[in-house]
């Protein structure tokens, strides 16, 4: 692989951007396409497919084979709240291949004994996100039931275009949340992206079932996500 191709891929990796290396069997130099680059026609359609699937593919463009090698940032889950739901989520998320970070300033809940082997940050989201902002390959699940903890990261997740934003709570609770988020400057279009009540409707009742429903909804959102707006 040419050095300039590697350089572009490394740049995309550092910025947590998706990239596809387009290699034509005719012998032309490989081309690196970053998610958001303007494309059209059948090549653009095929590249969009591999961005969503995360799997390399050989396709035929204008009668000639083209190899598309996709490089996606590893999707991650940031859970706001060190609660029973996130205890269960911590056990099943790695099975699907998702990194999990839990943020909760309540040190009585955010303990290593309850979350052994999990990246646990016992601090306020406002402080954590200064150095570790959300991005388009982040799923955010807010489950503390406390607006003082949940609202800020929910607002930041919507601003960052996270591929999934979910929040625990009843419809009545969410209606109040919507008003608070509007006061924080979020628009109706942004707010409607929040999955609330959180998780796919599987009739979940226990914390473990809610964690399962939430993870299933996160996977669904990732595979069906809108691609980054064309630049």
UniProtKB/TrEMBL annotation:
<dbReference type="Pfam" id="PF13478">
    <property type="entry name" value="XdhC_C"/>
</dbReference>
<dbReference type="InterPro" id="IPR052698">
    <property type="entry name" value="MoCofactor_Util/Proc"/>
</dbReference>
<dbReference type="InterPro" id="IPR027051">
    <property type="entry name" value="XdhC_Rossmann_dom"/>
</dbReference>
<protein>
    <submittedName>
        <fullName>Putative sulfurylase large subunit (Molybdopterin cytosine dinucleotide biosynthesis)</fullName>
    </submittedName>
</protein>
<feature type="domain" description="XdhC Rossmann">
    <location>
        <begin position="78"/>
        <end position="218"/>
    </location>
</feature>
């Amino acid at each position: 692989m040419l050095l300039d191709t590697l350089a572009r891929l490394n740049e995309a990796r550092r910025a947590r951007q998706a990239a596809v290396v387009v290699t034509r069997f005719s012998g032309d130099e490989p081309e690196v396409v970053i998610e958001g680059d303007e494309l059209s026609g059948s090549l653009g359609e095929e590249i969009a497919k591999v961005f969503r699937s995360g799997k390399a593919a050989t396709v035929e463009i204008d009668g000639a084979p083209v190899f598309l090698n996709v490089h996606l940032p590893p999707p991650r889950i940031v859970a706001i709240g060190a609660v029973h739901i996130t205890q269960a989520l911590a056990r099943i998320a790695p099975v699907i291949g998702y990194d999990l970070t839990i943020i909760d300033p309540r040190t009585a809940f955010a303990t290593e004994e309850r979350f052994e082997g999990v990246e646990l940050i016992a601090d306020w989201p406002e402080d954590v996100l200064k150095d570790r902002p959300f991005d388009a390959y982040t799923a955010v699940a807010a489950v503390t039931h406390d607006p003082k903890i949940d609202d800020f990261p929910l607002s930041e997740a919507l601003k960052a275009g996270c591929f999934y934003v979910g929040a625990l709570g009843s419809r009545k609770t969410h209606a109040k949340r919507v008003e608070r988020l509007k006061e924080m400057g979020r628009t109706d279009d942004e707010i409607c992206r929040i999955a609330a009540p959180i998780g796919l409707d599987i009739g979940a009742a226990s914390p473990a079932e809610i964690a399962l429903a939430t993870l299933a909804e996160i996977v669904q959102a990732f595979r069906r996500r809108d691609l980054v707006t064309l630049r």
